[in-house]
Amino acid sequence: MDAFLHTFFDWDEIVAVLPDLLTEGIRNTLVIAALAAVLGVVLGMVLAMMLLSRQFLVRLPARIFVDVFRGLPAIVTISLIGLGLPAAQFRPFGRSPIGYAVLAVGLISAAYCAEVFRSGIQSIDAGQMQAGRSLGMSYLQTMRKVIVPQGVRNVLPSLTNRFIIDIKESSLVYLLGLTVGERELYFIAHQQQATTYNSSALVAAGACYLLMTVPLTYAVNAWDRHLRTGRPSSGTAATPLPIKDLSEV
Asked: What pLDDT does 231 receive?
């Protein structure tokens, strides 16, 4: 038992690594996740509109993109973009790995956001389109002013859930060899664990991830209940509902 506690809950190790985790680690994790989420939402909406096009040649590249980036493991995508592009002498972000990390996680996020947006837009009753057209609006005007805003509102909890996943997937960018000042939570803990052969730093990093993801998870569940029932969540404790992820539709 003493060996177990020393390996996972050595307070000296936790205290030693905690300042870096709470400052550099959390900051860079949130920066990578937030920028990737912005890229994912913007590109995902473009892809969703392409997927909903009536033209096969417009749908095809979007479908290929979504299938490829949803089908590849995240670690493969991050390796191909973060290590492969610089090795091929294609360096749009210079030598800093942060830009490649954001791009890789953002492209993965975009593939899932595209399906989230698509399913949300297609969930709107067809009568909404007919009503818009009857008022003299074009197809694009009806989509922009009527259909898309309602569809996005329906999938806001799923988009927030996608941000939680982006936070967790940011841990994989340690493969890119981040430098001091650019390190995210897992990379800091991994360096400490490799130096001391003690896993307490990883436990501390896990606690930091939970500090970010658990409140967001409960917020998403409460938001989802509010959208479905039209009533604010009760103040009494309740078992959190599972997050709906429309990206799997």
From this structure: 55
pLDDT tens string 60-97: 999 999 999 999 999 999 999 999 999 898 888 888 88
Question: Distance between CA 218 and CA 233 in Å, rounded?
Answer: 11
In the structure encoding, which two tokens stand for residue 35, read together? 């920028």
% of residues, the chain, pLDDT over 90: 55
All structural domains of the chain: 2-248 (1.10.3720.10)
Q: Where are the alpha helices (DSSP H) in the chain?
A: 2-8, 11-20, 26-51, 56-71, 74-79, 85-87, 97-122, 126-134, 139-142, 148-154, 156-169, 185-196, 200-229
Rounded CA separation 161/69 (Å): 18
To the nearest 10 degrees (0 to 180), the angle between helices 26-51 and 185-196 is 130
175: exposed, middle or buried (Cβ count in 10 Å: 0-12, 13-18, 19+)? middle
Instruction: Return the closest-CA partner of residue 102 out of 33, 149, 156.
Output: 33
Cα separations in angstroms, 232 against 149, 164, 218, 236: 22, 22, 13, 12
Residue type, 159: L
Mean pLDDT of 103-128: 91
At 45 the pLDDT is: 94
Longest CA–CA span in the chain (Å) reads 75
DSSP string, 137-193: --HHHHIIIIIHHHHHHHTHHHHHHHHHHHHHHGGGGGGG-PPTTT--HHHHHHHHH
Q: What predicted TM-score, i.e. pTM, was given to this entire model?
A: 0.84
